[in-house]
Every structure is written in C-alpha cells, then in structure tokens.
Design goal:
The complex is a heterotrimer. By secondary structure, chain A is mainly alpha-helical. Chain A contains 8 helices and no strands. In chain A, helix 6 crosses helix 8. The longest helix of chain A has 23 residues. The two termini of chain A are about 30 Å apart. Chain C has 2 domains: about 100 residues, no CATH class; about 150 residues, no CATH class. The longest helix of chain C is centred in the N-terminal third of the chain and has 23 residues. Classes of the chains: A mainly alpha, B mainly alpha, C mainly beta.
Chain lengths: ~190, ~210, ~280
Amino acid sequence: MTDARKPQGDRLSESEAIERAKQGDAEAFQVLYDLHKRRVYSLCLRMTANTAEAEDLTQEAFLQLFRKIGTFRGESAFSTWLHRMAVNVVLMRLRKKSLPVVPLEETVETEDEAPKKELGAQDAKLAGSIDRLELQRAIEALPPGYRSIFVLHDVEGYEHNEIAGMVGCSIGNSKSQLHKARMKSKP
Amino acid sequence: MGSESMTCGEFQKILPDIMEGQRKAEHAAHLQSCSACSGLVSDLSLISQQARLLQASEEPSPRVWNQIEIALRQEGLIRQPGRDRSLVPAFSRRWSLAWLLPVAAILVIAFGVTVYKGGRSQQIASNRVAAPVAMSLAANSNDDQQLLEVVGSRTPSMRTSYADNLQNVNAYIRDAEQTVQNDPNDEEAQRSLMAAYEQKAMVYEMALDRSLP
Amino acid sequence: MKSRQRAARVALLTLMVSVAAFAANETRKEYRFTVGPQASVSINNQYGPISVKPGAGNVVVVKVLLRSDKVEVDRNQNGNRVVILSHLFAGATAETGRVDYEILVPSDANVTLHSTTGPMDAEKLQGDVSVEGATATVDVRDISNAHVHVKTLNGPVTLTHIQDGHVEITSVSGDVIMNEVSGPVVQVNSSSGKIRYEGDFGGGGEYSFTSHTGDIDATAPTYASIDVTARSVKGQVDNDFPLLPKTHITFPVDKARSLVGTAGKAASSVKLLSFSGKIHLKKR
C-alpha cells in the first residue's frame, strides 16, 4: 500500500515518524510524505486527469493529514487513513467544481443499460495487448463520474459498499458504473 | 454466437455481476461456447488487472513537498529543534553541502518543472529533473531568465528587484565556489558557499511560492 | 491668464474628486478570533503594512484598512490557527490592492507575516515570529525566548532587544541591524547588505554573520565572553576589541584579512565571514 514500508538507511520507520511528526519534527513529516506520496499523487492524478490539480490535491490531502496527525491513535492503518482522506479531498474538489462523482445519466436505469447489440467477432480481443500507457489514456478520456468509480475500485481497490458510501450512490449503481467504465476503457 | 441456453445479450446484461465473481454454470457454458463473450470477459479482466498497476505509479514534482513544508512551517506544525542543542550538529544537519546543494537544485528544478508543466512536454521536465545536481547554480542563467519572466508577467514592479538580487546572489556563488576550489579543505569557505546557495534557494522560493499573487 | 486660472481650478477640482473617490472606496473592518494558548496566526498581505502587537486575553483582533474594492480579506480559523489572506482581484495594483493590517494577538502566539512591500513590524511577543517580504522593511523588537526568522530580498531588517532568541535572518541586499540581540543561535546571511551588530553576544550562543560584499560591523562591551573568527577573503578586517590569540585555525592566516581570538571564557562563538566586505570588530 505504500511506496516503501521499510526505512531506508537510518531513516525513521513509519510508526516512529508518526510519533515524531506529532511532536512537530520536520524530518518525520517528510518521511511520511515520501512513503505515501506516489500513491496519493497517483490517485489524485487518475481522478482528475490534470497534473496541476493533482499536485494541488496531493498538497491538500497531506496538509489535512498532518494537521490531524495528533489525533491518529493507530486503530486503523495509517495508509488507510491517509488514502481515505485523499479520496475525500478529491471528491470534495470534484463536487465543488460541480463535476459529477457519479455519472449523472446513470442514476436512473434505462433501456441503454442493456447492450444494443450482441458483440460479434469484430470486437477484437485485447489479449494482453493493453499497456499501462494506453489504459492511462483511456482513464483520462473517461467522463469524470465513470473515472471516479473506476479509479476507486480497479486502481485503488475499494469495495463497492465503500465506494457507495464515499460517492453517495447505491452499491448496484457503483457496480454498473464500474462495468460501463471498463467497457469505455476498451481500446 | 451463443449457446442455446443463453444469448450474448442476456449474458452481457448480467456481465457486471459475472465480473464480480457471481458466475454460474450456465454462464460458464456460454463463455465456453462464445468466443466474443469470452473475449470480452478477458478484456475487462485484463483492464481491471492492469488498472491496479497504476496505483502509486506517478511521482509528484518536488514542488509539492516544498509547498507542504512551507505550509507546515507557516502553520507552526513543524517546530524547530530544541534550543539547547549545540550548533555543531545543527550546522552539519542544516548546512551540509550534501543536503543544501540538492535542495537548492530542487528549487531550481521545481521551477523548471513548473514552467514547463503546462505547455511543453513532460519529457523536457523529466530531463531537467535528471539533470545532475552538481550543476553550478550560478551558471544557470536560463532558469534565472525564466524566473524573471514569470515575476515580470505577474508583478512587473518586482522584476528589477529580483533581477538585481539574482545578480548579487550569482556573484556570491561564483566567488564562493572559486574560494572553495582554491582550498577545498577551507571550512569557512565552505560555509560561505553554502550561505550563497541558501540565498539563491531563498530567492527562488520567494519568487515561486510567496511573493507573487 | 483667466483661462490658465480656470484650467488650474479644473485640475484641482479633478484631483479633489479623484482623491475623494479613492478615499470613498476605503473600507475599515475588524475581525476577532478566540484562540487558546500558543495560537498560530498567519497574515499574508501582498501590498501594505502589517503591524503586530500583544493584545488582551485570548483573542486575535485583526483591524484592516482596505484601500479599494479590488481586494478583500479572506479569513479562516481552524482551532488554534488563524489564517488571514489579502485576496486580490483582477486588475489590482500596489495601490488598489493595498491593505493595512493592525493585529493584536495573545503575547504567546506564534506569528507568521508575509508581505511583498510591507513594512512589517512585530513587538513584545513571546511566541515565534516569522517574517518574509521582498522589498518590505522589517522591524522586530522586544521578543523573548522565541524563534525569530526573517527573509527579505532587499528590505532592510532591524531587530531590537531580542533575548534568548533563535534568530535566523536571510536578506540578499537589505541591511541587517541588530541591537541587543542574543540567544543560542543568531545567524545572518546576506549577499550585499551590511550587517551591524551591537550587543554582548550573550547566551553562550552561536553567532554567525555571513556576507558577500556587505560590510560587517560588530560592537561588543569588553566583558563579552566570545570565541571570534573573522575573515574577509578580499576585504579588510579591523579589530579594536581586546582578544587573546588562538593557535588552532582552519584557514590560511592573513592578518589584514582575518582575525581569530577569544575574550573572557569564550562562551559564545562568533563567526564573521565576508568575501569582499570590510569586517570591523569594535569595543563598546
């Protein structure tokens, strides 16, 4: 879940860093940042498809975390706490910008839900050919609502019940949106 | 195209559930008999698997930490080390050449990344990040020029001030570097060189993070 | 002749109307925030002065004078942290975007001030003071047992009566003047600004003044207890302070350009380094 769980050289471990960050130790903050920066930034980047915004959100997520670090008691994993906070920061930003965190047209089941055609042999198989870059581009091209669900489930590994709680939709909706996002991500 | 028991349309209608692992015998039978649907399932599974590789796949620019650290200091969340510590370890921690040079370089590089982020390709930015830390900061006139352009475009009245101060700092670095080259074991010369680097880092930091709207 | 008088009257009238219009857009506001001990107060003001003084009780009082409607004041309180920001609108200039701040804080508050043009001053506080400005004049006085950190480009910095301080000043070309400044760490880093120190180098601290071309003047009473290293690579070093010579030194000695020695028990370390500036250690 993190970039490097183990301390490098004489760097602090995560638990040591948490305790020292609570005391205001500059190095401890940086250790925690270094451990989790890639995961948080990648999440922000996938969700927004915009590097400047992702940087801004990464900064905001870490700052929120560090401001509250004194309240962290270790009941949950630190990484879980941080990543959930990052997700909330991103979702909040999307809502502020009036971007849908759930696809608007998907809140009502329509005829479109059913495939209009039966897929034939002309649908080329990916057969392991999709690479990271292609997928990255495909995710960027997704409408924001689909992108949120896809990133939260397939990239970040959240369960549908968690996603439903986070974005404010039903579990069934989360499932069906994920499916559509995957379909749209096919080259 | 489809088995007798289930059409492709029916199969694809319940595909979201199937992808969630709710697979029954009739689904398996359809998959075995229908290459289109089995291909679709394997495509979607592959997308899902590959997606996980995107987790923690990107590195934020050094600017992000820089901003966080500044905010933490401003908000008083980072506290200075206790005052009873002697300056000797404090000096080596805060001023060691190995520490300060990369920091100064990172500030310069962060500026490069910022400038290039919008318009130019990421390739250029990443090349800059890979640039050797050992570059002479004083000689980095391109970055200085870009910094001044940014300052000039945002706060024209400050451009001259920044230009003058960069000139001062660059002269400081040049002289300090020369002094260290003359005698690499001269501790006081090293101290001056590090002070000069810190000055340049401060000018960049102020221009990029605070002193502009 | 008459037409010239009329033109002058019209010009005067126009000027009066403009001044009145400008003044009419000025707005005064006051904000109050209740905080706990050791609150953190941050003010970021692009254009205009910030003045911080201790107030009564556990309240932060922010009095502002906005010079036009091209600027507004954003406030945010998060627990013990108060953040104030002058928010400039499009087209704001140094004149129209100016906001004058007068802040009263509990004396133990930690204060962070930013202003490009300043001036900024803080006084009579026991909390940490951090000030940053480009061309801003910075004046910090009567601070005890706290960190005082100042950064400027060419704004002059004056510190007066800082006791038991952890002082770090970085200014590219602004002069730095210190009167009665002492503490465990007093560090000044300048490129071309002058550095002037008057005080007793007390507190058993580490005093380090570094400059490129600026002169460094340090004046101390004869009772000062110091271990001095002074050196200018190309400038002159003068001393009229009674020092005992030292034997161990880390750089080549040129008596006109360097000085090492101790006074008293050598409780505080004093390093005065310049490249081409003059260094003068004086007896008070």
